[in-house]
Design brief:
Helicase, Ruva Protein, domain 3; 11 strands; five-stranded parallel β-sheet; Rossmann fold; alpha/beta; 47% helix
């Protein structure tokens, strides 16, 4: 980011110059991640869009689909510290946030705060729905407030700070589903699907031999923050803004004119869904080498941004269609 833009305010020329430089950097980032994470271009794009937008992502997929590898590789390529916490029912808030311990030394006794694993730039919260609601709440509060409070003292989290949480959609025994208000804290929901046949062949060949792919860092924390600032400086066309408003409002049963929404949607997306779409659309545009988001970005991001912020009523017939298909229909009409 140029010093002139910081001192005198961003101009169109500044944004174009910074965006052109960012496009090449982001291309290198995707190339490096692709050396280790195969055939998950959409997942990688959505994950990077979340980080560039300054948010958190919920990765949903079966075990063995490289979710942990994705988080680790993303952290290394972005030049960030990272950590992984395996969530279990007996995990306590202090196991994540940290706790005070009593030091006994020559100068006397005093309490000292020992930071928990949350004090990192990129945290993988593995199977977040296996932790108790109390522990989930402690993490999700930190995600929103960007600091933790222990024994009345406040401790700021690193900048940048992002959480990539995972959920296993297959095994639900012994889990505590995240409440709607907590799901709303995640910028995007990213579905991690099984690879296609060619990708699976590549996985088998390239991950079972002696060769070990090593990725190189392309960014660091300071440069990532500059990219996040650039994303917020990018202009949003009026047509895109109007499409976001139409989409979000059409997904709420109280405001929608869509018959299926009025009949089947129990609760719709909050204004935070529109904020997520605005930021993620800018990030996706930059990742694709564009200086402003388009209507295509809104259609592509509609389900990741709204899918965890809506719920359908029970359909005893099983013929009413899925939430995903309904969101895509709303997005097509809004665009």
């Amino acid at each position: 980011m140029s010093e002139a833009a910081i001192a005198d305010g961003p101009t169109s020329a500044d944004i174009v110059k910074d965006a052109d430089a960012a496009v090449e950097v982001l291309r290198n980032i995707r190339t490096e991640i692709g050396k280790v994470v195969f055939g998950q271009d959409r997942v990688v794009e959505l994950t990077l869009a979340t980080v560039l937008a300054g948010g958190h992502a919920l990765l949903i997929g079966a075990p063995g689909l490289a979710k942990t590898k994705l988080v680790e590789t993303t952290a290394r390529v972005l030049g960030l510290d990272w950590g992984r916490v395996q969530f279990t029912p007996d995990l306590m808030p202090s196991d994540i946030l940290g706790s005070e311990i009593l030091d006994d030394n020559a100068s006397g006794r005093s309490f000292r705060f020992v930071k928990g694993p949350i004090f990192t730039s990129l945290l993988m919260a593995d199977e977040i729905n296996r932790a108790s609601p109390r522990t989930q709440s402690a993490l999700l509060q930190a995600m929103q407030e960007r600091h933790v409070t222990v024994a009345g003292a406040s401790y700021d989290l690193p900048k940048p700070f992002h959480v990539l949480a995972t959920q296993n959609p297959i095994e639900q025994e012994g889990t505590y589903p995240l409440p709607e208000a907590q799901l709303d804290r995640f910028l995007l929901k990213v579905d991690v699907d099984y690879p296609d046949a060619e990708t699976e062949r590549r996985i088998l060949v390239e991950t079972t031999g002696l060769e070990n792919h090593v990725v190189r860092p392309v960014l660091n924390a300071e440069k990532l923050i500059a990219l996040q600032t650039l994303v917020r400086r990018m202009p949003v066309p009026e047509t895109v803004l109007e499409a976001i408003i139409r989409l979000v409002r059409s997904a709420r049963p109280e405001q929608s004119e869509h018959a299926q929404v009025k009949k089947r949607v129990d609760w719709g997306p909050s204004p935070r869904a529109g904020q997520a779409l605005m930021l993620a659309a800018r990030s996706r545009a930059l990742l694709r080498g564009r200086l402003a988001p388009s209507l295509d970005d809104i259609e592509a991001l509609a389900e990741p941004a709204l899918g965890h912020r809506m719920a359908l009523s029970y359909d005893p017939t099983g013929q009413g269609g899925t939430l995903s298909s309904l969101i895509q229909e709303l997005a097509s009409k809004a665009a």
